[in-house]
C-alpha cells in the first residue's frame, strides 16, 4: 500500500464530488461487492438502455473524469462508470486480495458485470482503462458487443521514453505542484477544468495499491478478436506515437475503425469534449448490428 504525500481524505472526496456534480441529473452510485473488494460505480441513463461500461485511466483519473461525455452517452445507453479497485476513487480493496495480474483484473471486471446484472455490454476505456478493457474483451469476447479504446496505452505501442522521463519526478515524489506541472506540460494549450485539476492534486498520497502491469496483448490474440473496435488517438499525445498506435491497431484488429483526434493530448481526455470525439463515439455505439 502507498501513502505518499500529505493525503487529506476529506479534501479528496470533496474534490471528487465537485467533479461528479458535472454528471447528468439522476446519476446515482452503486456499490458492487467482488472478491477483490467493493467497486464503486456511477450509473446514468435510461433503465432500459443498452449497457455501456466505462473504465478510467490510471492515477487519479477516477470514473468522474467521464463527465464531459456522460450526458451524450446517457441519452442512448445505461452508462456504468467504474472506479478501479485499488486506485484513487471510492472503490475499496478487500484487504490484501487486490488485483495483481491481468487474470485478476479480468476476473474483477467479470464480477462487476455480474453484480450489475450485465451479460453483454458495450465497453470503453481511456489510457490504462483501455488496456484493461482490451484485455477483458480478449478474455470474454462473448460479454463485449462493441469496444472503444481512447488513446490506449500499451495496447499497440509502448510509451515514449521522453514521456516516462518527464513523469518520473511526479511518480517518485508526487506533490500537488508536480502533478499540476506535469499536466500543464502534457496538455499544452488545452484549458483544464479547475475542479478536475483540483481532484488530481487532492489524490496525491491516496493509499492506492500497485497497479497491474504487463505486456501488450499478443498479436495473434488481437487478430482473432472478432468484434467491432473503435480506436481513437490523441494527435498531440506525448505518451506514445499516435500514428504508430493507429497503424498497429489497423494491422492487428480485423474489425477496427481508427481516427486521430486533432488538437488534443492524452491527459486532456476524456474530461475535455472535442466535438469529433462525441460524434465518433455516438456513430460507433449506435450503429446497427454488430
Automatic annotation (TrEMBL):
Report domain AB hydrolase-1 positions.
Answer: 51-162
Q: Name one GO molecular function term.
A: hydrolase activity
Where are the bilayer-spanning segments? none
Origin: domain of life: Bacteria
Q: Among its keywords, does the record have Hydrolase?
A: yes
**Record keywords:** Hydrolase
Protein's name in the database: Alpha/beta fold hydrolase
The organism of origin for this protein: Streptomyces lienomycini
Amino acid at each position: 500500500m502507498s501513502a505518499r504525500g500529505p493525503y487529506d481524505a476529506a479534501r479528496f472526496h470533496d474534490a471528487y464530488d465537485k467533479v461528479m456534480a458535472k454528471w447528468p441529473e439522476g446519476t446515482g452510485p452503486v456499490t458492487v461487492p467482488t472478491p477483490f473488494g467493493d467497486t464503486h460505480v456511477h450509473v446514468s441513463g435510461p433503465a432500459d438502455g443498452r449497457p455501456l461500461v466505462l473504465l478510467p485511466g490510471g492515477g487519479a483519473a477516477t470514473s468522474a473524469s467521464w463527465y464531459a461525455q456522460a450526458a451524450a452517452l446517457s441519452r442512448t445507453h445505461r452508462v456504468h462508470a467504474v472506479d478501479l479497485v485499488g486506485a484513487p476513487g471510492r472503490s475499496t480493496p478487500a484487504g490484501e486480495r487486490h488485483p495483481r495480474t491481468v487474470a485478476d483484473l479480468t476476473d474483477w471486471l467479470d464480477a462487476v458485470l455480474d453484480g450489475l446484472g450485465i451479460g453483454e455490454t458495450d465497453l470503453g476505456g481511456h489510457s490504462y482503462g483501455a488496456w484493461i478493457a482490451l484485455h477483458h474483451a480478449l478474455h470474454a469476447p462473448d460479454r463485449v458487443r462493441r469496444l472503444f479504446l481512447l488513446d490506449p496505452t500499451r495496447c499497440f505501442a509502448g510509451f515514449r521514453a521522453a514521456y516516462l522521463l518527464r513523469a518520473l519526478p511526479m511518480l517518485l515524489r508526487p506533490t500537488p505542484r508536480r502533478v499540476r506541472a506535469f499536466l500543464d506540460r502534457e496538455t499544452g494549450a488545452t484549458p483544464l477544468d479547475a475542479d478536475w485539476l483540483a481532484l488530481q492534486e487532492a489524490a496525491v498520497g491516496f493509499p492506492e495499491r500497485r497497479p497491474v502491469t504487463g505486456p501488450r496483448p499478443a498479436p495473434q490474440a488481437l487478430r482473432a478478436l472478432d468484434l467491432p473496435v473503435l480506436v481513437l488517438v490523441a494527435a498531440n499525445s506525448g505518451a506514445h506515437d499516435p500514428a504508430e498506435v493507429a497503424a498497429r491497431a489497423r494491422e492487428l484488429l480485423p474489425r477496427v475503425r481508427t481516427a486521430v483526434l486533432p488538437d488534443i493530448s492524452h491527459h486532456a481526455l476524456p474530461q475535455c469534449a472535442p466535438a469529433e470525439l462525441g460524434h465518433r463515439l455516438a456513430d460507433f455505439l449506435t450503429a446497427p448490428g454488430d
